[in-house]
Amino acid sequence: MENQGKKTALTQEPLEIDEAGQTPTDLDVDDDGRERRTGTLITASAHIITAVIGSGVLSLAWAIAQLGWIIGPCVLVAFSLITWFCSSLLADCYRSPHPVYGKRNYTYGDAVKVNLGVVKYKFCSLAQYVNLVGVTIGYTITTAISMGAIKKSNCFHQNGHDADCEASNTTNMIIFAAIQIALSQLPNFHKIWWLSIVAAVMSLVYSTIGLGLAIAKIAEGGQVRTTLTGVAVGVDVSGSEKIWRTFQSLGDIAFAYSYSNVLIEIQDTLKSSPAENKVMKKASFIGVSTTTTFYMLCGILGYAAFGNHAPGNFLTGFGFYEPFWLIDIGNVCIAIHLIGAYQVFCQPIYQFVENLIRKRWPDNAFVTTEHIIKVPVFGEFPLSYFRLTWRTLYVMITALVAMIFPFFNDFLGLIGALSFWPLTVYFPVEMYMAQAKVRKFSVPWTWLNILSFVCLVVSVLAACGSIQGLIHDLGGYRPFKVS
Question: Per the confidence metrics, is the pTM higher than 0.70?
Answer without folding.
Answer: yes
